[in-house]
Amino acid sequence: MAPALNTPSDALIARFTEIVGEQNALRRAEDQAAYLKEWRDLYTGKTPVVLRPGSTAEVSRILALANDARVAIVPQAGNTGLVGGQIPVESGSEIVLSLSRLNKVRALDAEGGTLVLDSGVTLADTQRIAADARWLFPLSLASEGSCQIGGVLATNAGGVAVLSYGNARALALGLEVVLANGEIWDGLRTLKKDNTGYDLRDLFIGSEGTLGVITAAALKLSPAPAEKATALVAVSSPKDALALLRLAQAQVHSSLTAFEFWSRLAMQFALDFLSGTRDPFANVHPWYVLIEISSGETGGRAAAQMEDLLVKASEEGLLRDAVIGASMQHARDLWRLRESLSEAQKPAGGSIKHDISVPVARIPEFLERAGGVVEGVCPGARPVPFGHFGDGNIHYNVTQPVGMEREAYIALWHDMSYAVHALVASMGGSISAEHGIGRLKRDELPLRKSSVEMGLMRAIKQAFDPNGILSPGRVV
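RESULT FIELD:
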């Protein structure tokens, strides 16, 4: 067990300030506000100082000093995390380490398709840099304008393109990481194959800032598709969505780059609460699937594949209706319906959220059984499932019953999540598909993992951070 941590003194804060400069050591409440609250309002913390280093060397000096003084450091990227890991505790004893000033591109290999950049570069900027070089960085999230590469990798983020390109882990070739004691591990290799012992890169990816601070990354780029085709399909049930997925995979193979889904209630929230949205269909349907097909060829190849798929699906009775994106703007409008679903739920009241995964073939069974679980915890609560059908990741959000007070409903978060997660575990699934564990799910993790797994995770934490200064109370 790590020794007890200390609350930083004024003298220690002055030493941290010397490292980053007065303007980058935020002490005033109004300057700190954006770093202390996560967007779902579940966590609001306090900190004596927000440190904003401008280089890996400064991060190294900060961690070395914190380790010697036994004070807690909470790394923070774009503050878009959804499990509270990036928010300091309410006691005000933890220092926030913002990586946002580490925002430089270090190297772009336009011949080999690799990009090396600082961890504070936003995902949207990473996509743009790749596109300017005629490559694709395929990771795509609703928060891509704010989330940063360091946070994306620290949480092993997923998004809408995992079906074809994989999670963040699959897109990282190497890392630069500052360890808890201030040492710098330079693992910024751009090799596609390197089988020389333990894979340290994969230990840090998904570790949520508990093992080290990612300061730079070497990323793998992909060829940009020449064409895309997008269609929104209305289906009768998740079983039909599953059959449609299998048909799409059989017909277009790796050209299938997205297969997203959502319920009618999710669609209704988007239509009711987001300006500029409209229902693409004349009639109401119970479920919707968004399909994207990409092609490396020009000449309408992707559109032809989409049309062939939809004709075959219609012949097999798998779709009720379909709309094909007739232009780039039309396709963006269809995607906006999907990408805005989290935002659209806020005006509907309190929402208890679950980021879970189950085997793809069991998604229909899960959705059917989960409705009864929710009703047992809170009669009248309204499930709003959506997410990444193609890789089994469901955002199983549950909105409060009509007329119930938000505070009373949110008080049921633990009971609701425990019940839903118990069902997930019984079906061989995961209680965190892409958001991580953070503070929100830390106490439940030992209930869902074996004692052997937990023992190994704690041993790794002890080896990398023996004094427990990095994101204490998160994950393990």
